[in-house]
Amino acid sequence: MPALDWSSIPGALPFLWGGMLVTLSITGIAILVGILLGTLIAMARLSGNGILSGIAALYVNGFRSIPLVMVLLWFYLLVPQLIQALFKTPGADIRLVSAFVAFSLFEASYYAEIIRAGIQSVSRGQVSAGLALGMSRAQTMRLIVLPQAFRRMLPLLLTQAIILFQDTSLVYVIGLSEFFGVAYRTGDRDGTIVELLLFAGAVYFVVCFAASGIVRVLQKKIAL
Amino acid sequence: MISIQDISKWYGEFQVLRDCTTRVEKGEVVVVCGPSGSGKSTLIKCVNGLEPFQKGEIRIENVSVGHSRTNLPRLRARVGMVFQHFELFPHLTVMQNLTIAQQRVLKRKGRDATDKGLALLDVVGLKAHAQKYPAQLSGGQQQRVAIARALAMDPIAMLFDEPTSALDPEMIKEVLDVMVRLAQEGMTMMVVTHEMGFARRVANRVIFMDEGQIVEDRPKDDFFKDPGTERARQFLSKILAH
Q1: Per-residue pLDDT reduced to its tens digit, A113-169
Q2: Phi-psi bin for B12: left (phi > 0), alpha (psi -120 to 50), beta?
Q3: Does A148 touch chain B (CB under 8 A)?
Q4: pTM for this structure?
Q5: Which residues pair with B2 in a beta bridge?
Q6: Buried b vs exposed e over B1-22: b needs ≥16 C-beta within 10 Å?
Q7: What is the ipTM of this complex?
Q8: Which chain B residues touch A if contact means CB-CB below 8 Å?
Q9: Which of A126, A139, A143 lies nearest to residue B87, judging by beta carbons?
Q10: d(CA B46, CA B56)
Q11: B235, B35 contact by CB (below 8 A)
């Protein structure tokens, strides 16, 4: 086995950092939009309104039945035409936007299920107590149920975020230069692909391991 | 003040309430007792609309609870309720439990809500615990906070749904003491409970329910001296045996 040659990594660091920023921005936006949209979907599913909960169930089961790679490719092929049709801006690079949209919508389906379980874990008595004090259903949800639900869900939400962070590497299929893609192409160019992939793996490991640690600490801190 | 007229309720095929009729006048304390499954908790939850009912009418100061156009939140804000399992909000401090509905529902200023909260915590003997979380208190303390939380809304009447049945025996007294004082101060109260000592001390009337029906509804002394029905006699002898 030939000796490993790490020499191309220092020079590649700025590009790798740029890739990491893309990775982090996709992760961040997908978490934010995913949780917001996921909360709405979860509430629709629990609403007791047949049509609303039917649509929500279809959304969740739909996205969860399709591989993420396919969702990504579809949005890559679809969103450009949509945007161009809507805003008449031909030729813009929409790879990043389509990645944002695809990940956000995809993650929302997973977050929705976590959030639904969290909402259901808050006892009916808590809802009764809120209503008995004269709060509206919406106030009871916002002030009483959701704060408790999110505390209970936090470990699961963050675990899902860690999975999402790793899954962003899939955007290589639409040629986006996120962290993994940059590492791969740099290694390919310099003939040090083994070294760069080892390095990339180490970075993923450190970030995710640290995030898991944070989950554990938070779990202890905000337990009800 | 509270009038309950021919209330019936079904869970699917099963009828939990059968033509229940009674009244609670202003300043009256009415104790509702009966074996478990007799519908007494369901009845009291119908009073503030937490449980829907299919037949009959409940009016609180002439506002119909079951009417589709009734502003239920506004009605509930005026009727305090205390639950068997306290139902304090675990993510809020004791003080926040007392102020949240004052601020969000009654739109009171933070300062006023806090003052009110402190005064009521003082009444129930828990002023020192204002900044604690519910989980740091004993069951009896939590139930006293729950009573203070309901009183903070300046209710015209209070509903108690088995307020002491989830408590250890040594904590029951501290909760009953608060309730007795409340009754003596003239609060209108409807209390589902098995605490016959409480009924003897402060109740005006006792209602006995069985299988979804109001079997007895009479002045306390009559009830304890001679329950009119065999069913009530059996019930009383069972819970007074010890």
Answers
A1: 999 999 999 999 999 999 999 999 999 999 999 999 998 888 888 889 999 999 998
A2: left
A3: yes
A4: 0.84
A5: B24, B60
A6: bbbbeebebeeeeebbbbebeb
A7: 0.93
A8: 45, 48, 50, 72-81, 83, 85, 87-91, 100-101, 104-106, 135, 149-150, 153
A9: A126
A10: 11
A11: yes
